[in-house]
Amino acid sequence: MLELWHSTGLYTMFIADTALGLKQILMIGLSLLLIWLAVRKDFEPLLLVPIGFGGILANIPVIHLTAPDQLLGMISALGLENGLYPLLIFVGVGAMTDFGPLIAHPKVALLGAAAQFGIFATLLGALALSGLDIPGIHFSLREAASIGIIGGADGPTSIYLSGKFAPHLMGAIAVAAYSYMALVPIIQPPIMRLLTSEEERKIVMRQLRPVSQTERILFPLLVTGLCLLLLPAASPLIGALMFGNLLRESGRTERLARCASNELINILTILLGLSVGAKLEAEQFLSPATIGILVLGLVAFAIGTAAGVLLGKLMNALSSEPINPLIGAAGVSAMPMSSRVVNLVGQEADDDNYLLMHAMGANLAGSIGSAVAAGVLLALLG
Q1: In the chain, pLDDT over 90 holds for what percent of residues?
Q2: ∠ CA 73-76-81 to the nearest 5 degrees?
C-alpha cells in the first residue's frame, strides 16, 4: 500500500516535490485555458485543443509521457524533431489554397514582403533585450531568429524554424504564434485604424481579372524554380507548399489533392498539436524567457501589421490605380482570418466596399514571404 501511495500523482505533486508539483498544476491550468479558448471562443480550435491536451499529458507526474519510449516522445520523434510535420502540413495547405488573387494582382506581393519586416525587427529586439542583463532572459542569435519568425504569423513555419534553431523554446514559440493568430480580430484593427484615415479605408479597388488554368499550373512551378535558383534554403517549405498547390491545380490529381487537404492535414494537425503540447512541460516552459518570447511575439506581429499598412499607403500614393492600405495588414500569414478582418474594417467605413479577395492576395504573398524569410535565416545561420 505504501508503494502504491508513493506512485500516485497526489504524493508526487504535493509531498515528494511540492515546487515542481505546483508548476505542473499551473501548466495544466494553462493547458485547460487553451482548450477553453478553443472551445468557448473558437480561437484556432483545430490546433489549440490538441496542444492543450498535449500540455496536460506532458505535466502528468510520475509517468513521463515525453520520454522517448512514451506516447508524446514517440509522436514528437516521428515528425516534430526532424521537421516533417510542418512540411507535410504545408503540402496540405497548398492543396487547399487558391493563389488566383495573388496571380491576378501580383503587386500585392510587395505587401506580403513588407509584413515580414516584423520578423527581422523582432530578431534585433530579442538580441537587444538579451543585452539588458535581465535575469533568465538571454537569447542567442539562433534563438532570436526563432522568436522573430512569430511575426510572420505562420504557425508551421515558426515550428519548423524553432525545431532547427531552438527546440527547447518550441513550446513557447508555438503557443505565441497560434495565440496571436487567433487574436488577429483583436490585435490588428486598432493598428489599421490608427495608421489610416477614413477616406483611405473607403477606397474601392477594381474587381480582379479571371485567372486561367494555365497560369494556375505555371505559378507553383515558377515559384519553386525561383526558390531553387535564388534561395535553396527555403525550398523545403516553398516546395511543399507549391507541390500541394500543383496537386490542386493540375486537374488530374483530384484524389491526391483531396487526401492532402483533408485526411493528411487532419492527421498531421493532431500529431503536430500533441507534439507541441509535449513541449509545455513545467520545467521548460515556466521561465522568464517564456515571458520575453510572448512579449516579443506580440511586438513582431504588431510591427508586421503596421509595415504592411504603411507600404499600402505608399503604393496607393504612387500607383495609377487605387489601392486600399488596409489590405497591407493581410500581408502577415494568418490566413484567412486577417483577410476577413481587413474586409470587416473596410466595411465599417463603407458597407459596399469588399476587400476580401484583394486582401487574400496579400495574405497568400505573406504565406510565401514567411517561408522565404525562414529560408533566409536558415541560409545565414544554419
Answers
A1: 46
A2: 125
